[in-house]
């Protein structure tokens, strides 16, 4: 038996543990520009789960992973072409 991975859309609701609120909270999926930890670039228009209480990002659905990898690869290729 295979597990189904949920597919989320803008405005969908879910629940997650918010690291900022330190509680189980309701979330809303929306699109945001998310910076890499290095601060070198951002992933534009990424679907993420946002805490309905503090508006912090609490989760990234699996369907957003390819966009993260694409942005990371693009950044790596740009850095590789710098003098």
Short description:
The protein is an alpha+beta fold and 83 residues long.
The succession of helices and strands, N to C, reads EEEEH
Low-confidence stretches: none
Q: Would you tell me the structural class of the helices and strands?
A: alpha+beta
Query: What fraction, in percent, of the residue positions are helical?
Result: 10-25%
Features:
83 residues; alpha+beta; Ubiquitin-like (UB roll); 4-stranded antiparallel beta sheet; 1 helix; 19% helix
Describe the structure.
With 83 residues, the protein is of the alpha+beta class. It has one domain (13-80): Ubiquitin-like (UB roll). The protein has one helix spanning 65-80; strands at residues 13-18, 23-35, 42-51, 57-59. The protein has a four-stranded antiparallel beta sheet. β1 and β2 (23-35) form a beta hairpin. The chain starts with 12 loop residues before the first strand and ends with a helix. The model has no long low-confidence stretch (mean pLDDT 89).
Task: Summarize the helices and strands and which ones pair or pack.
Elements: E1 13-18, E2 23-35, E3 42-51, E4 57-59, H1 65-80
């Amino acid at each position: 038996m295979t597990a189904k991975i949920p597919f989320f859309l803008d405005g969908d609701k879910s629940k997650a543990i918010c690291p900022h609120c330190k509680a189980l909270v309701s979330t809303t999926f929306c699109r945001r520009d998310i910076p890499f930890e290095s601060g070198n670039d951002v992933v534009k228009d990424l679907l993420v789960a946002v805490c309905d209480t503090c508006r912090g990002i609490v989760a990234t659905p699996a369907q957003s992973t390819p966009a993260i990898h694409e942005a990371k690869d693009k950044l790596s290729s740009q850095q590789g072409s710098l003098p």
